[in-house]
Amino acid sequence: MYTLSSRLRLFSVILMVVGGIGLVAGFLSTPGSVEEVKEMMAAQDAHGGGHGESESHAQSEGEHGEDAHGGDAHYEHVLHQLQNKPWASLYVAAFFFFMIALGVLAFYAIQFAAQAGWSPVLFRVMEAITAYLVPGGIILFVILALSGFHVNHLFVWADPEVVAHDKLIQGKAGWLNGTGFIIRAAIFLGGWLLYRHFAVKYSRKQDEDSEGNKWYKKSFKISAGFLVFFIYTESMMSWDWIMSFDPHWFSTLFGWYVFASLFVSGITVIALMTIYLKSKGYLEFVNDSHIHDLAKFMFGISIFWAYLWFSQFMLIWYSNIPEEVTYFITRIEDYKLPFFGMFALNFIFPLLILMNSDFKRVNWFVVMAGIVILCGHYIDVYTMIMPATVGASWFIGLSEISAVLLFLGLFIFVIFRALTKAPLLAKGNPYIEESKHFHY
Predict the structure, then answer these.
(1) What is the pLDDT of residues 142-186, one digit of tens each?
(2) Is residue 57's pLDDT more than 80?
């Protein structure tokens, strides 16, 4: 049995406390009026910094019907962006850590549905990571509910004033409305959490079943059914929770693109957690071949993600249809470093580091590649969300760092506490001996 060390528990609590305090400070430091924004921008101009607002923001004021505010329309737009910043930072971090657990849940279901023989020794690690879905899902649902009913300005389609002057959003109101948004979120989260509950329950019962594989067969059936449910709901989730930040834009590849990001992030965390536990003397039944296979998935899904990134970008950029290409123009003009930087982190770096088969067996190589991949996919989520919520007013500051620390602390605490709930070896699994002797 795994025992959560007091040092790791204290470390996770410190992260949560520091992150929570920093996030509160981030909310409190946002300007509360147009006058404060004017003073802030005047101070920046005096120091030669400027604010960096692009012309597209001024154009959007006319589209959103805010010209009635006169000369203050631009400053009011900036005010909304700066007030959005801590909310957007909170949302990016909340979604990022939730998507890791969701990616692990999908990977876990695939192992059962495929009747994989190499991976059962890793099942307890996967089950522990998916434990984060419960608190992470509740937090994300609360943020989504607050956004859906326009407590903040994250989703522009939730603002009645904007919708009243936007024919395109009005045409999508049948889907993009607060009530439907919240109901769908509840269905997505409810289905994922329900599968996780029964999958873990059956896994524990299989350990106690000395007569047959009754519970394993049940796990196989619900996993196969869950994957059908997941592939539909994950796509709709990506439309609702990310793509609708830009309600004028859509991509038919977007669901797959988000899936690739959450899938590789989840597999990466499985690898990092496995290596950490082995370094502490646990998981003695996990060998280099298991690490090698996890690293193969990290490498392969990184290539798949890059293929989707390039396909989406190249096809839209080449066709040069204004309402489609504006998505990338905004990111290239205002987010050039994170937009192209995360492509290097998520594709070029894993390609160079993990292409060699021998390197996939070297723990510190896998850890280094894993940390870079996770940083890259955080930036990926950041560049998907921030341009539509804070525009050119972005920078990595107190809110962003604090939100990551808060959810990292919660993530560590929840998953390592979940590890203490059951033996680290799923001994009742019919493929466990094959997995223990797996060699590539």
Answers:
(1) 999 998 777 888 898 988 888 888 899 999 999 999 999 999 999
(2) no
Query: 3-class SS at 56?
Result: helix
- Dist. CA 370–CA 353, nearest whole Å: 10
* Both structure tokens of 77: 């737009």
Distance CA 229, CA 223 (A): 10
Question: How confident is residue 56, by pLDDT bands cut at 50, 70 and 90?
Answer: very low
**pLDDT range class, residue 1, cuts 50, 70, 90:** confident
The predicted-structure confidence for 325-363, as pLDDT tens digits, reads as follows 999 999 999 999 999 999 999 999 888 888 888 888 889
What's the rounded Cα separation, in Å, for the pair 384 and 346?
15
Distance (Å, whole) CA 61 – CA 278: 56
306: tokens are 């890059």
pLDDT of residue 183: 95
Quote the pLDDT of residue 393.
Answer: 74
CA dihedral 135, 138, 144, 147 (to 10 degrees): -100
Cβ–Cβ contacts within 10 Å for residue 254, how many? 18
Which of 79-93, 147-161, 422-436 is modeled with the greatest confidence?
A: 422-436
State how far the Cα of 388 lies from the Cα of 10, in Å rounded to an integer: 37
- Which residue type occupies 320? N
Q: What phi and psi, each to the nearest 5 degrees, are found at residue 115? A: 50, 50
Which long-range contacts does 76-81 make (Cβ < 8 Å, 24+ apart)? Answer: 76/34, 77/391, 78/37, 78/41, 78/51, 78/53, 78/393, 79/31, 79/33, 79/34, 79/36, 79/37, 80/153, 81/389, 81/390, 81/391, 81/393
- Whole-number Å distance between alpha carbons of 424 and 277: 10
CA 356/CA 316 separation, integer angstroms: 33
- 149 CB-near residues (< 8 Å, 6+ apart): 158, 178, 182
Beta strand spans in 15-163 (E): none
Q: Is residue 172 within 8 Å of residue 158, measured between CB atoms?
A: no
